Amino acid sequence: MSASLLRCLSRVKPADPCAKRRIACAFGLTLAGSDAFGWMLVRSFPDEMRYDVAYHPALRERAAYEVDAQRIAKGRSWAELAELIGRPPVWTVAALLGSHPMPRDEAEKIGAALGLSDEVVTALQRQPYRTGPGDVAADPTIYRFHELLHVYGPAFKALIHEQFGDGIMSAINCSVSLTKREHPDGDRVVVTIDGKFLPYQWSTETS
């Protein structure tokens, strides 16, 4: 029942509370008030299912949309936001796009810089769902690469577009290296992908 309810609630526009209440009633549940990003079930719902609704991925997805919209509107770069909170750019972008929870003080700094609503600042602090397709390779070593792309892929994409423009990194005109680096906390695996940037281009028959 929880999966069905989550699917129903996630498809309803945030500005349509009546529809959300009707859906909840169909499941014999009661909804409390909400912010712009989600609803909290308060009665006739097990604790673990109540947690799922409160931390539904849609909360972070909508927060990420507002962050990026405000960032563009105010002309702020991802690098500037990273410098603002003293974090690496890739981590910062991943967090703002929903892959990491941000500490309260950092979320509030971002909120002040971008003029975000209180609901978005709160959403940035929520523990995210770090999920991906269910058909990822089962081998633990290979799965780690899938996991890395699930978490940091959106950040890589955002930073490529910011630094290079509209295009992609080639996976056929590239080199990949893997090295071992000794470290006091344990040997490190260093993977480097050196790929050519390919801009999107509109080509005609004569050009």
UniProtKB/TrEMBL annotation:
Q: Does the keyword Signal apply?
A: no
Instruction: Give its E.C. classification number.
Output: 4.2.1.104
Enumerate the catalysed reactions: cyanate + hydrogencarbonate + 3 H(+) = NH4(+) + 2 CO2
Record: active site: R144, E147, S170
Q: Cite the entry's keywords alphabetically.
A: Lyase
- Any one GO MF annotation of this record: DNA binding
Domain Cyanate lyase C-terminal: from-to ranges = 131-202
Instruction: Name the domain of life.
Output: Bacteria
Q: What class of enzyme is it?
A: lyase
Q: Which InterPro entries match?
A: Cyanase, Cyanate_lyase_C, Cyanate_lyase_C_sf, CYNS_N, Lambda_DNA-bd_dom_sf
Entry keyword annotation includes Lyase? yes
Question: What is the similarity comment for this entry?
Answer: Belongs to the cyanase family.
The protein's job, in short, is: Catalyzes the reaction of cyanate with bicarbonate to produce ammonia and carbon dioxide.
Record PANTHER family: CYANATE HYDRATASE
Under NCBIfam families, the record lists: cynS (TIGR00673), PRK02866.1 (NF002773)
Protein name per Swiss-Prot or TrEMBL: Cyanate hydratase
This chain's source organism reads Mycolicibacterium vaccae ATCC 25954
Species classification: Bacteria, Bacillati, Actinomycetota, Actinomycetes, Mycobacteriales
Gene responsible for this protein? cynS
